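ok here's Cytochrome b5 heme-binding domain-containing protein:
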Amino acid sequence: MKKELLIGIVGSLLVLAGAGYYTMHYRAQTAQLDALMKRAAPSTNIQNSSPPVSVITLTKEEIAKHNSASDCWIIVQGSAYAVTGFLNIHPGGAAAIAPYCGADATQAFLTQGGQGTHSAVADQQLATLLIGKVGAQVAPTAIQKADINAATIPFSGEREDENERDDD
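and the structure:
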């Protein structure tokens, strides 16, 4: 009888601990999402707001300033994309994109670095990171939106470089 009672108490404590852990995890993710949404809040009602105080012209020179893994913009087929938040979840690893930060990555994207073509999913993911067309003027909120979208792209958990076979 005491053994059954002890097992019941331990089981209950484990269930409570698990529920507490998942509640804390959920709250942390919710807080992170709230923080991202607060950063993007000025862009939620652009039609009724006054014009942006500052705009960024997406020249090749401006894009070239964003040439590091901590601030990475690329050009693909005449459009600029903010890919900083995507670098670490790219299936090919950050090293597949990093050399193109601040530059035109069209050929690399279209040929998947000489490995073939990207999937329709990759095209959709890239579209969510769009800042605007090269030469266009955009509000800083376009960059914030791309950063938020990068945070919502799921990570497959697999990287090409981790799955390579050794064909000796």
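+1. Strands lie at 56-57, 67-68, 71-76, 79-82, 103-104, 130-133, 137-138.
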